[in-house]
Design brief:
Structural class of chain B: alpha/beta
Number of strands of chain B: 11
Chains: A alpha+beta (about 475), B alpha/beta (about 475), C alpha+beta (about 110)
Oligomer: heterotrimer
Helix content of chain C: 25-40%
Helix content of chain B: 25-40%
Largest sheet of chain B: 11 strands, mixed
Number of helices of chain B: 16
Distance between the termini of chain C: 54 Å
Distance between the termini of chain B: 9 Å
Chain lengths: ~475, ~475, ~110
């Protein structure tokens, strides 16, 4: 029975740091260049070459450490992780082992039911990325592209604190948001700048001992992480319940078949023979440097969410959505500033609703939105001053989005101004009532539902421009007055 | 004879116009052609490049350039990457490797106007003490062609001894400059770790390797070291400290110099070797030096320490030789594992494979603490011993090698016997200290070396002491017969 | 200097299995003929370095570097390298469409 079991999850996230050059060489880190055009002698591990450390990579790691309340090591050491693989030109990866640059931090996540949970971050360390193996068009062979080899990575290791796939996704999303806030990683999962491995094990509820874990590698979307963990949890439970044992191994998630499978080539346990890299000296970080980096940190997501909730009287959920990125938060605050803080909720609803849908539909980042904060606030102002109804505003928004015009121009061009003149509305109501005597009689006889019919008819006659609140009020009076 | 002149004297004649670099280069190229076949010291001569570089040097001199090394020919140990020229590291693995860049040492000497005559033979990947492990065959000692020249810079030493160039470059990880210098009767200098850039020097043991020079005299070596030394931003282990003028202090009087006599060096020292060292010490006391007995109690552990640390580092450094991007690839690999195992199995010689496996073992799970970690602790003890000694003395004096040159093939059966050739030199590498070996006499008609070890960045005093000894003696001017 | 010379008897030797495992980790093919020689010489080396166990290192920190008191230099984050792949690949064992070709990598 599923409820007898508890799943224990830890995530290892590899975030590619957004430096211009590689961690140990001056080659570009730009994505998408033709194969091996961004791989110099150091990246190619030619005989005699040596690594020199990129200052920006260190700074970014320190930023991350401070943002998660972690200890930043004043002395950290690079170590060699030795293994043979074609995308690893030196035959070892320069990483950090016993003395990582960041250790013991935590982040808080918000669960579906609104509760918060703290997830520990064991450590974060600097290392270099490997190249890529490509297989298309090569019979029985693979082609190695080393453009990516040497790109700086921050490996972020969580404590095994998560107890469901959803918690894991919430953690992953939080880290994703954080690294983008800090501008240390662009978070582009399709391009491989943000990769996640999940360590999953199960144990009987109440047990203190950890079960044998399987590592699922290279999950490059939130959805895949959730599905892979769910699949793996079931797989392990079924395996144990049918008398089998979970093997400690590395598995890959197959997104077509929605299952995890064992990685054949990595089944043998690797002895990485870690030792401090003699080509690099210990990295020293002064308290002055830490202080300087701390003072340069932007407002962090949790702080922004709390502030938005407080200053704009938003729900925790809304504040959370609006602080998912610095750009969304800035957009919302800009719109609200122009509109007036009293209308913050309206602005929030529109940013989370219509704007988000349009961005998603056209696959745009908010920075490239076709309706900017000023334009949106202009539209929302017309709802506030009742020039148009909320429903009409959606139509106006679509026109603004596709035509690039501002709200007033669209309203004028389409003649969409709301009718707010009571006399005018009454006139239309009278006409509609006169044209529908049977429905009038039925309504007065008790068929309340026909109220909607009359509303619809008036809206049709006014091309949707009658102010709904006034219409409701006036129609009610007319229908009940008996005149 | 041109090839018997010091660098100073060559420079003087070149600047007076008595000689051109092209003529000088032709002279050395002719010597290489005539004498190298018997020695196998040079494996890749570069005559065309040399003559072209010499012509450039002559033009620079005509334009007023007075650099001390301008237009003077050298031979580089084949461990330094030289752009456009094969760099084999003495190995089949790199037999087809044309380096696409210059090592910093090569670039600096080139900028100083040096003319490269070719690349010198060496023990494969710098692993050896006799130059018998080279893929290109052993190097012969010009003093006795049946004897080894020492290693791993055996080709550089033999070439320097036979005066195939005005000087040669070498590298020293456990004694690979000093030991062959001693066995071939030349002066060899290993600088302080971090003094000379390692960029472009094919790595053997990263925390021990240093580039240095082999020449006829300490005065010549000082001029070369001056051009080689200095901070390199491409090498994270390169020290950013100014390079003193080594030549300027060669003549400083030695009065008051405190020479340390290491108890551990003199214990069990072969009597004739000991006699030569004592003669040398007398030369120094006559020059005003005093002697102090010191002890480095952990020094006897230096060889086992080295043979854990160096193989560990090299096992990792040599992983990049995998048949994928450059170098030797086995024919028709049937899968990836086969590609790796056969390219490396066929590309590397036995001693290299032995050291890679030793290194892999001492780093492996379960053995790391007992071997690698332990060795690095003993390394600190040895270094601390030296530091304590240098609080009492200015330089340490002693032998360079336990014996004179041995027969080719004599020590190939047991690796340990070969490793023990380095017992006097390894300590300086572990502690990162500078050292020099100079000729100090003969045993059985073969040269013997006197070693001086200095404190960190003590190259100035070291070369000064070496030079003063060479002003008072003439061992360094002896020539092997047939190579005069 | 009195240092232990090559011992006549080997106290702790490596087995053939040990050497096979090491050779595999190091990706070195050792033939059947070569194997006994390596087993002997590696055992001899390991035996020799076992000498280290006699040193008292109880309170000693390991020394990874002779450069005490130095720390890693940081370089500015700038792109300094141009594309030279044609030069570098001119000498490569096997290249196709700019990629280094190896036998199929199975994931």
């Amino acid at each position: 029975m599923m409820s007898d079991w508890e799943v224990v999850i830890g995530l290892e996230i590899h975030a590619q740091l957004a430096t211009r050059s590689k961690i140990f060489s001056g080659s570009s880190t730009a994505y998408g260049a033709p194969p091996n055009t961004q791989a110099n002698l150091v990246d190619l591990a030619y005989p005699g070459v040596l690594p020199v450390l990129n200052a920006a990579a260190v700074r970014m790691a320190v930023k991350f450490g401070l943002a998660i309340g972690a200890a930043v090591a004043q002395r950290s050491v690079f170590a060699r992780k030795n293994y043979f693989y074609p995308d690893l030109p030196k035959g070892y990866q320069i990483s950090q082992y016993e003395l990582p640059i960041v250790s013991k931090g935590s982040i808080s996540i918000v669960l579906d039911d609104g509760a918060t949970k703290t997830v520990g971050v064991t450590r974060a360390h600097l290392e270099e990325d490997a190249g890529k193996s490509l297989h298309e068009g090569l019979a029985n062979a693979s082609g190695i592209d080393l453009n990516r080899a040497g790109t700086p990575l921050l490996e972020i290791v969580s404590e095994p604190d998560m107890r469901s796939a959803k918690e894991a996704v919430a953690y992953m999303k939080k880290i994703h948001t954080l690294v983008r806030y800090l501008e240390i990683c662009d978070g582009n999962m399709q391009e491989g700048s943000f990769r996640c491995d999940a360590n999953v094990s199960v144990r009987r509820r109440g047990s203190e001992k950890l079960g044998t874990r399987a590592e699922i590698k290279n999950l490059n979307s939130f959805r895949f992480v959730e599905k892979a963990i769910q699949y793996e949890t079931s797989r392990q439970i079924e395996l144990i319940e049918s008398g089998g044992k979970v093997v400690q191994e590395t598995r890959l998630y197959d997104s077509d078949k929605h299952e995890t499978r064992s990685m054949r080539s990595k089944e043998e346990a690797n002895d990485y023979r870690y030792f401090p890299d003699p080509d690099l000296l210990p990295v020293q970080i002064s308290t002055d440097f830490i202080r300087e980096v701390a003072s340069s940190l932007p407002e962090l997501p949790d702080h922004k969410a709390a502030r938005l909730a407080r200053d704009y009287a938003l729900s925790a959920y809304d504040a959370g959505v609006l602080s998912a990125s610095r750009e969304i938060g800035a957009y919302f605050e800009d719109t609200t500033a122009r509109l007036g803080a009293a209308h913050a909720k309206l602005a929030a609803n529109w940013v989370m609703g219509e704007l988000s849908s349009a961005l998603n539909r056209d696959n745009l980042d908010i920075a490239d939105s076709r309706v900017g904060a000023a334009a949106l606030s202009g539209l929302l102002a017309r709802i506030v001053d009742a020039t148009i109804s909320g429903k009409m505003a959606k139509e106006v928004f679509e026109a603004m989005w596709s035509e690039g015009k501002d709200a007033d121009a669209v309203i004028a061009a389409k003649g969409l101004k709301q009718i707010t003149n009571s006399g005018e509305i009454e006139g239309v109501i009278d006409a509609v009532i006169a044209a529908n005597p049977k429905q009038l009689a039925d309504y007065r006889a008790g068929k309340d539902k026909l109220f909607g019919f009359f509303v619809g008819q008036v809206m049709k006659a006014t091309e949707g421009k009658a102010n709904p609140a006034q219409l409701n009020e006036l129609l009610k009076n007319k229908l009940h007055s008996g005149s | 004879m041109l090839h018997t002149l010091s660098i100073d004297e060559l420079g003087r004649r070149l600047s007076l116009g008595e000689l051109s670099s092209v003529e000088l280069t032709q002279h050395f190229l002719a010597r290489i052609e005539r004498l190298n076949p018997s020695l196998n010291a040079v494996i890749t001569p570069t005559p065309e490049q040399a003559l072209s570089d010499a012509a450039v040097a002559d033009r620079r001199r005509a334009a007023g350039d007075k650099a001390p090394l301008l237009g003077i020919p050298l031979i580089h140990k084949d461990i330094f990457c030289t752009d456009g020229v094969r760099t084999s590291c003495g190995s089949r693995m790199l037999d087809n490797f044309i380096a696409p860049y210059d090592a910093t040492v090569v670039a600096r000497l080139k900028a100083a106007g040096a003319v490269m005559l070719g690349k010198a033979n060496m023990d494969e990947f710098a692993m050896g003490s006799s130059n018998e492990t080279s893929y290109y065959g052993p190097v012969k000692n010009p003093w006795d062609l049946s004897k080894v020249p020492g290693g791993s810079s055996g080709g550089s030493a033999a070439a320097a001894a036979a005066r195939l160039a005005a000087y040669t470059t070498g590298t020293d990880t456990g004694g690979s400059i000093r030991q062959p210098a001693a066995l071939t009767g030349v002066t060899g200098v290993k600088p302080t770790y971090g003094r000379v850039s390692r960029y472009g020097m094919i790595a053997f043991a990263s925390s021990l390797d240093q580039a240095g020079v082999l020449a006829e005299s300490a005065a010549d070596a000082a001029l070369v070291l001056q051009a080689m030394a200095g901070f390199d931003p491409l090498d994270s282990t390169s020290v950013d400290a100014p390079v003193p003028d080594y030549h300027a202090t060669l003549g400083t009087p030695l009065k008051g110099l405190r020479l340390g006599l290491l108890r551990e060096f003199f214990e069990g020292l072969e009597p004739r070797n000991a006699a030569l060292i004592r003669d040398a010490i007398e030369v120094y006391t006559a020059l005003g030096a005093t002697t102090v007995e010191v002890s480095l109690p952990h020094l006897p552990m230096s060889v086992p320490t080295y043979y854990v640390v160096a193989p560990a580092e090299c096992s990792s450094n040599l992983s990049r030789f995998d048949g994928v991007r450059f170098g030797y690839r086995c024919s028709h690999p049937k899968d990836l594992m086969d590609l790796y195992k056969r390219s490396r199995g066929e590309g590397f010689g036995a001693e290299v494979k032995r050291r890679i496996m030793t290194g892999t073992y001492v780093l492996s799970a379960g053995y790391f603490d007992a071997y690698y970690l332990k060795a690095q602790k003993v390394r600190r003890l040895i270094t601390d011993d030296f530091r304590a000694a240098f609080a009492q003395v200015d330089l340490v004096i002693g032998p360079t090698t336990p014996t004179p040159a041995f027969g080719i093939g004599a020590k190939m059966d047991d690796p340990i016997t070969m490793y023990l050739n380095d017992i006097y030199t390894i300590g300086a590498n572990l502690a990162g200290l500078p050292g020099v070996s100079m000729p100090c006499g003969f045993v059985d008609g073969l040269p013997m070396g006197l070693q001086l070890i200095g404190p960190h960045f003590g190259e100035g005093p070291l070369l000064n002491a070496a030079h003063q000894y060479q002003q008072a003696t003439d061992w360094h001017r002896r020539r092997p017969s047939g190579y005069e | 200097m009195r240092t232990r010379s090559a011992p006549k008897t080997v106290h702790m030797s490596l087995t053939r299995q040990d050497v096979e495992k090491i050779a595999h980790l190091a990706r070195l093919e050792i033939t059947d003929q070569e194997m006994p020689v390596y087993v002997t010489s590696l055992s001899s080396i390991v035996n020799f370095v076992d000498e280290l166990a006699r040193a008292d290192t109880k309170d000693t920190l390991p020394m990874a570097h002779p450069l005490t008191g130095q720390h890693q230099r940081l370089r500015p984050d700038a792109v300094t390298e141009a594309d030279r792949h044609e030069k570098y690949q001119a000498n490569a064992p096997s290249v196709q469409a700019g990629l280094y070709v190896v036998p199929r990598v199975i994931e």
